[in-house]
Structure to design on (659 residues):
């Protein structure tokens, strides 16, 4: 006898999931139509599992053929669940055109399993009813579950391999679904009479729906619209998948001013009314996302929606400068609408976001128009940033990272015997991206650690190859990225690079930023101590940009503290700030730290920082950042004006000026 409780519960859970899915607008953000098909297949599996169990329990009165037909339908649905999960996860993680290899690996075992199930009533290879009316498994039943095991492994491989859109939430949902499936198969093999596969599959799909298809963080709490983050993820997926779609941006610039003028309750009522008005105008399958205060994007899928977007934009303008009755307040809102279509108006995510951002920044109407098109907006920051990221990826792939060099003036010795080596990137347009901007973008795309490693290696190799620019340089300074200093064993990776280049450890200063220091764990301190003992010297980079506790500094093994430009600009503001700056440097000097400062661009700044006790000066006053290659070609002129003592004479008599 089979227990039908779990099958009935599975059917109920599947119906709840399907009903909830039909009510959620976020279904438009999912990977095509795969997820609703998965819900329906699980529903069919639960239904036929229940009917098959009831019919099997009634043998021999129910007859063999009804049992065989119902059980075959159950296996057809149940066997399709894991292949659909694999297809769904692949679509969510890759969002790219599926290759022939994927179709072969995915479709061949699936087709073989479906064929086995379809011909089973005639061949009895999988299951049959014996002459005594007892349900039994056939000789090929194990082969069917071997195919299921293959799909379990393929699912695990997809979760492990990841992809551009396979977030942590999707990985967790996939792993939980796998756990449910394995548990169901294992328990029903150990306990006769219990069919748990449909029950566990329904639980898994419900979990995926709750966590992936409609997470709480995906909707705006004020209006119920999709958040900008979720919108951008769906937007990017459609572009990668080359799915035609259109976006209508509805924007009222008056909202920002009204946010300050209206009471909170009245403003929320206005925002809700504005959203509901947009929702009433758009097709049911459209996605409405809140981009900013008073700014919404309506995403329409399909190649025919380009024209529909134009009509929708014109329809929206019926409320331009209309009066909104909020009782007791009446508000007049101006409405502007932007229209973009893929692939007619843009081909990349960055270009599209540039144009959307441009629409939101338009404060004056173009002529008498309230409707703006993609051609009205000039691409900006998003496109530039994407171009820099693409160029950086190419540089890292080819190992051709450019280096920049800037001399550091030693006040005590009145000479430049050390220099900082930085990274730079020259775009095809000829524009040069400086170190800090380059690492900011590298951090956003997950390349800062790799960029920092290549910078360190190239800088050390250059120093060794040029013999310190013909012995003109005794040491070089290289800043590590924050991501290079946070992992366990980070110092071993850094030391492997240093030792592999052949540079003398005492010729190298490594910079660690304040961000890494303020979140310092034991692994950072242990790594620093290891490098110090190996002969490498360390400095705090860009001191003043973070919140380093002065009480922590005596316990960290740094040789040098390098002040950021912000310290310089604040320190010269007035006599009081100069006194504070001098006191801070005096305290740090007594702790045994050498002090350096960036941003020294004028003789006055050089005099001030010398007066307050700074030993090393770096900035335009002593030479700007120049490409390493050109410096190698003219090494003899490096910092010539400093070596000849011009800077020393320019700072004479500075002791009394700042008192």
């Amino acid at each position: 006898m089979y227990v039908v409780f779990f099958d009935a519960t599975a059917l109920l859970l599947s119906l709840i999931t399907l009903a909830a899915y039909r009510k959620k607008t976020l279904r438009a953000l999912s990977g095509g139509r795969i997820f609703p098909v998965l819900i329906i297949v699980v529903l069919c599996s639960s239904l036929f599992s229940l009917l098959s169990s009831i019919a099997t329990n009634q043998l021999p009165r129910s007859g063999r053929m009804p049992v065989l037909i119902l059980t075959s339908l159950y296996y057809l649905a149940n066997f399709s669940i894991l292949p659909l999960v694999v297809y769904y996860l692949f679509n969510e993680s890759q969002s790219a055109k599926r290759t022939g290899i994927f179709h072969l690996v995915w479709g061949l075992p699936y087709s073989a399993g479906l064929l086995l199930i379809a011909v089973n009533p005639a061949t009895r290879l999988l299951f049959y009813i014996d002459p005594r009316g007892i349900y039994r498994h056939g000789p090929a039943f194990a082969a069917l579950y071997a195919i299921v095991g293959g799909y379990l492994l393929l699912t695990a491989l997809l979760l492990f391999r990841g992809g551009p859109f396979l977030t942590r939430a999707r990985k967790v949902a996939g792993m939980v679904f796998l756990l449910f499936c394995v548990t169901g198969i294992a328990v029903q093999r150990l306990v006769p009479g219990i069919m748990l596969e449909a029950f566990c599959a329904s639980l898994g799909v419900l979990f995926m729906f709750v966590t992936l298809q409609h997470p709480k963080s995906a909707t705006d709490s004020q209006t119920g619209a999709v958040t900008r983050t979720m919108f951008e993820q769906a937007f990017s997926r459609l572009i990668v998948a080359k799915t035609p779609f259109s976006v209508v941006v509805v924007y009222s610039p008056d909202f920002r001013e009204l946010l300050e003028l209206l009471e909170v309750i009245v403003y929320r009522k206005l925002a809700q009314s504005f959203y509901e008005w947009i929702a009433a105008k758009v097709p049911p399958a459209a996605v409405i996302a809140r981009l900013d205060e008073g700014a919404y994007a309506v995403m329409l899928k399909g190649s025919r929606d380009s024209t529909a977007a134009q009509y929708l934009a014109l329809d929206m303008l019926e409320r331009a400068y209309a009066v909104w009755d909020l009782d007791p307040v009446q508000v007049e809102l101006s409405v502007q609408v932007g229209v973009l279509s893929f692939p007619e108006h843009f081909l990349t995510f960055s270009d599209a976001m540039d144009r959307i951002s441009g629409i939101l920044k338009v404060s004056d109407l173009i002529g008498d128009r309230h409707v703006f098109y993609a051609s009205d907006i000039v691409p900006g920051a998003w496109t530039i940033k994407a171009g820099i990221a693409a160029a950086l990826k190419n540089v890292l792939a080819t190992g051709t990272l450019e280096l920049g060099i800037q001399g550091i003036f030693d006040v005590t010795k009145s000479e430049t015997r050390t220099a900082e080596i930085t990274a730079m990137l020259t775009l095809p347009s000829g524009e040069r991206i400086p170190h800090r901007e380059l690492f900011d973008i590298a951090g956003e795309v997950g390349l800062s650690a790799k960029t920092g490693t290549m910078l360190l290696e190239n800088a050390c190799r250059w120093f060794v190859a040029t013999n310190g620019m013909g012995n003109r340089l005794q040491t070089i300074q290289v800043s590590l990225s924050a991501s290079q200093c946070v992992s366990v064993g980070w110092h071993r990776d850094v030391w492997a690079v240093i030792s592999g280049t052949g540079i003398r450890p005492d010729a190298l200063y490594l910079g660690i930023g304040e961000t890494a220091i303020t979140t310092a764990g034991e692994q950072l301190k242990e790594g620093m101590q290891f490098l110090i003992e190996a002969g490498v010297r360390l400095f705090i980079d860009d001191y003043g940009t973070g919140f380093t506790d002065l009480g922590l500094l005596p316990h960290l093994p740094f040789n040098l503290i390098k002040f950021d430009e912000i310290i310089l600009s604040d320190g010269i503001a007035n006599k009081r700030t100069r006194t504070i700056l001098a006191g801070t440097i005096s305290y740090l000097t007594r702790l045994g730290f050498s002090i350096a400062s960036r941003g020294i661009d004028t003789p006055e700044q050089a005099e001030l920082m010398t007066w307050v006790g700074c030993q090393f000066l770096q900035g335009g006053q002593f030479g700007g950042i120049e490409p390493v290659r050109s410096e190698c070609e003219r090494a003899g002129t490096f910092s010539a004006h400093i070596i000849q003592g011009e800077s020393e004479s320019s700072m004479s008599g500075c002791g009394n000026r700042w008192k």
The domain at 5-214 is CATH 1.20.1070 (Rhopdopsin 7-helix transmembrane proteins). The CA atoms of residues 193 and 386 lie 58 Å apart.
